Amino acid sequence: MDGLPEIKLEIPPTSTHPVILFVIQGNRKSLKIFLRDNDINGLFPCTELDDDITPLIAAFVYQKREIVLYLLKENGDPNVCSKTSLTPLHYIGWYNAPAICARMLLDAGVDPNGQLPQPLTPLQIANIFARDDFMKELPSAGEPVDLIQGTKPEDHSFNHKIAQTLFRLVSSGDELCSGLRDFVEFKIATPRKTNPEEVLRAFDSRMLWVGNLPSVEHAVSILKSARITSNDEVGIASTDPAVPAEASGKHNWLQISERWRGKLERLVHCLKSDESKVIRIGSIAYISDVDFRIAKGSDGTEVFLGLRGSDGQEIAIKRMSKTNYQVLKHEVELLRLPKLYDSCVVKYIDFAEHEHFGYLFLQLCEYNLEEHIRNNDGILRPEKLVHDVLDGLRALHCQGPQILHRDLKPQNVLIDVNGRARLADFGISRRLPKNQTTYHTRSAGTEGWMATETLKEDGDIRYKSSTDIQVAGMLIYFILSGGHHPFGGERYKLMSNIKKGKYKLEHVQDVVAKDLIEKMIDKEPKNRPRVEECLSHPFFWTSTKKVQYLRQVGNMKEVASRTNVNQELILMLDECAEGVLYNQWKTKFSPDLLLRADDKKKPYPENILGLLRFMRNLQEHYPDDAASVDLTSLFPHLFGCVYKFTIRQGWNLENPLKEMFKPEKTGGANRHEVEPINDEEHVGLAVQESEHTFTEPTADAKSSIGRI
């Protein structure tokens, strides 16, 4: 890492200040005392880091989560830099802090650009230390991905490393990094290439051209008119992807897939030793043999494994006969829409026509949902898959032009190598004209996975977004139940049950999940929620929001009153608890906490009403103690019990509870606009602070940053 831009490091401190020591030791009580006479955002010597740092930097570096929460609550500033001009965001990229720390800093208002005397951005430092997780997190928050400004060979090496990291993330399914990769590579390439055609050709197969942007020929003429030319004559070669490429004798392969690795190894072997078996469509190579076929449709569609020669990317090749491939061209038109680019929809790569076939090149995934559920090893959380399915549907429904999928089923939900579920197969999907909400056509879809209103005898079927919602509800039950169908039964009985709206949810125990499913599979389309309402359902709430809801319930006058208690409410709550007892809830808290928080004159009763009121007062009057207790872990069934109870009482239809059910405002398909499920598992409140391993950079790495 020699050759990085230099900054001056001061003489290292000779001893660590007590404020920093208390942070490192996790001693919040002593830290609070010392901060009475010291600036919470002041700089204090730290010999361990050879720098003067803020308490917040120390808390993040040494991963003292409870202290992080305390400092942020007390207005610790995440934008204060150390004496060597490093922000907390720089430090957590340098040291082995988890990426969720970056999310906490971003939520606290840190400037992701790190515009300080430090010549390197937090993202550039993270890349130097191979922090792919940071490369995924920071750009989504607005940090620009820029190159290191320098002229030395080492600077070019670091810039190429940035491009390689982005390429690695793209190949593993990260859409946001895809566009960033192309522009970073373009920026690297431009200073070294004077021939405009050479630059444009290098990126023509990978750039996402949106709208009526210029052709390569037109773009070259624009660059030439701007005097970006070479001494050589600029020639325009054919860009038809169906033109066979010459065998190079060498074929790159970026290994990503686990499931298909053996077959891909055989494909690479054939590329090197037996070209006679290989079919090339432009830069894409595949073998038309059943051994390399990974899927087959009833309409003659076949899906093969393939590799892209330009970068070694693994590809799924969807091939359809030209006699019936208008369906394929229709799918291409939908998948190329920019609104689907950063969403839980299978990623479009390219399209080509050949003599007998049409080809759709797609991101290679590992399994479909049916295969995953059948072979489930427990690694992927069902709740995450449910969120992905709805997030993909939101990309279709929530931004113009609205798209109706019309063929949702387990086989059309694919699981990529990162465990992300993606909607696929848009052959019979339809894009609605502007200001239109209904598509009139004959019945379409797959038996068993069709909405009630599509099973009518007459030919005029009214497809709406609510039609997709009902089938998505069936899919959610399929995921959470481990492969069961809510309408059950054999083929004839199944279709009859869908028509009648007759279902059973006996294989799902979570009452909150059941509530979501029941709303989605309602027989009446008008009663079904919109997809954005589904994603705002309490099933997806974080632990923090669930505790906030319980606090609001604890503030209701019916719960707050400890005189003239309504015994019917207690009985109804006990009924909603379904056998879970709360008559000893005080034993879940430490005696010291109870001594401080329990009412001395009139202790809280040991029933659910008493627990709710205690939780409310704990949050209201003892926030520090509340921050040290994970209430949803102590009482894992309480939220479901109370939610079921409030539905019966009608309390959710009135403020303040009603306000908590408003859908998130969303601009469309960006999955980051709705908080991922249970991120609180990583950053939420805990009974006891977790122990973390502190990993210090190597001596070489530290000396390199010391020269930054």
Could you please describe the fold and organization of this structure?
The chain is α+β, with helices and mostly antiparallel strands and 708 residues long. The protein folds into 4 domains: 18-192, Ankyrin repeat-containing domain (Serine Threonine Protein Phosphatase 5, Tetratricopeptide repeat, Alpha Horseshoe); 261-363, Phosphorylase Kinase, domain 1 (2-Layer Sandwich), CATH 3.30.200.20; 367-536, Transferase(Phosphotransferase) domain 1 (Transferase(Phosphotransferase), domain 1, Orthogonal Bundle); 542-662, Up-down Bundle (de novo design (two linked rop proteins)), CATH 1.20.1440. Helix content is 40%, strand content 9%. It contains 30 helices and 16 strands. Strands 3, 4, 5, 6, 7, 8 and 9 form a 7-stranded antiparallel sheet that branches. Strand 3 (279-281) and strand 4 form a beta hairpin. Helix 9 (153-171) packs antiparallel against helix 10 and helix 16 (382-397) packs antiparallel against helix 17. The N and C termini lie close together (10 Å). Residues 1-10, 202-218, 220-250 and 666-708 have low confidence and may be disordered.
CATH architecture label of the largest domain: Alpha Horseshoe
Number of strands: 16
Here the CATH topology of the largest domain equals Serine Threonine Protein Phosphatase 5, Tetratricopeptide repeat
CATH class of the largest domain: Mainly Alpha
- Mean of the pLDDT scores? 77
Number of domains: 4
Low-pLDDT runs: 1-10, 202-218, 220-250, 666-708
Assign the structural class, choosing from mainly alpha, mainly beta, alpha/beta, alpha+beta, or little secondary structure: alpha+beta
Tertiary shape: flat
Task: Indicate the proportion of strand residues.
Answer: 5-15%
Total DSSP helices: 30
Q: CATH homologous superfamily of the largest domain?
A: Ankyrin repeat-containing domain
Overall helicity: 25-40%
Main beta sheet: strand number and arrangement? Answer: 7 strands, antiparallel
Ends distance:
10 Å
